[in-house]
Each structure stands twice: as structure tokens, then as C-alpha cells.
Design goal:
The protein has one domain (2-160): Hexapeptide repeat proteins (UDP N-Acetylglucosamine Acyltransferase, domain 1, 3 Solenoid). It is 27% helix and 20% strand. By secondary structure, it is of the alpha/beta class.
């Protein structure tokens, strides 16, 4: 917990103290409740993990499915309106701003949500859809729509469908 609080203090210039972050930041509450729900989900406990997830959404405005895998020191800044789907995976030391969706596009029981590498920053209002990979140290601009993989150490903005081939067809 101490390293998470330090991550908030490092990434949010408005954070005044560790106690303030611990008690007043919705992302910290959402992550704490997610850790409990995720563990119960992995153990195969029915109903309770989703109930915890719904309670967390109700008090924080942040919806994280109990099946989502989240690394260490995720900073959720403001948080309202964030949706993280069931098969999403988030690496270590990522920052996600409010209004972000890590959503699926397939109606199947398979990997259908994005995977974020380590040290990824997702700007306000960005939507990432499908089984895509966002490489380590990448940044996604505010209000972007990401539908294809993003290479490591890359900044993308706007609508990202991937790299076009010579014939103009999407590469993926």
C-alpha cells in the first residue's frame, strides 16, 4: 500500500499527503476493493466478487470487473467513469485518467479486452477496444479511440486503427 500511495504522490501534483491519498482518492478505494474481488473471483466464489465490484462502482464511479488483472502501483487519477473489462490486463506503474474505457468488442468467452504494458499513460476519455496490446512506456492521448496494437514507447492520438499497408488495408 505504501508504494501505491507513493505512486499517487509522484503522479498527482494536487496530492498533499499520504493520508489524504489513502482516505480521499477514489482510485485507491477502487483498487483495494478490486484486489479482494479479484482474489475471490480467482477462487471461483460466485456472486460475491461481482457484488463487491458493483459496490465499488457505486462509491467510486470506477467499474473494474473482478476478472481484470492489474499490476502494481496503478494510479487512477479522478477516476469517474472508468470501465475496465473482465479480460483486461494492466502492467505496473500505469496511469489512467477519468472517463477511460478498456472495453471488449467480441461477445465470446475469450481474451477480448486490452492489455497495457508497464508505465503506460491513458489520457482522459480514451477508449481502447478489443484484444489489443499497448506497449511499455506508451501514451494514449485524451479522447482517442484505439482499435489496434500500439508499439512500445509510442504516443498515439485520435483514431488509431493500426498501420496501413501499401494497399491501404489495416495491418491487423
Amino acid at each position: 500500500m505504501a508504494s501505491l500511495i507513493q505512486a499517487y504522490l509522484k503522479n498527482d501534483p494536487a496530492a498533499r499527503s499520504g493520508l489524504e491519498v489513502l482516505l480521499l482518492y477514489p482510485g485507491v478505494k477502487a483498487l483495494g476493493l478490486h484486489r479482494v474481488a479479484h482474489r475471490l473471483h480467482r477462487w471461483g466464489v460466485p456472486f460475491v466478487p461481482r457484488a463487491i465490484s458493483e459496490f465499488s462502482r457505486w462509491i467510486t464511479g470506477i467499474e473494474i470487473h473482478p476478472g481484470a488483472r492489474i499490476g502494481k502501483r496503478l494510479v487512477i487519477d479522478h477516476g469517474m467513469g472508468i470501465v475496465i473489462g473482465e479480460t483486461a490486463e494492466i502492467g505496473d506503474d500505469c496511469v489512467i485518467y477519468h472517463g477511460v474505457t478498456l472495453g471488449g468488442v467480441a461477445n465470446v468467452r475469450a481474451k477480448r479486452h486490452p492489455t497495457l504494458g508497464d508505465r503506460v499513460l491513458i489520457g482522459t476519455g480514451a477508449t481502447l477496444l478489443g484484444d489489443i496490446h499497448i506497449g511499455n512506456d506508451s501514451r494514449v492521448g485524451a479522447n482517442s479511440l484505439i482499435l489496434a496494437d500500439v508499439p512500445p514507447a509510442t504516443t498515439v492520438t485520435g483514431v488509431h486503427r493500426g498501420v496501413a499497408s501499401e494497399k491501404g488495408n489495416p495491418s491487423k
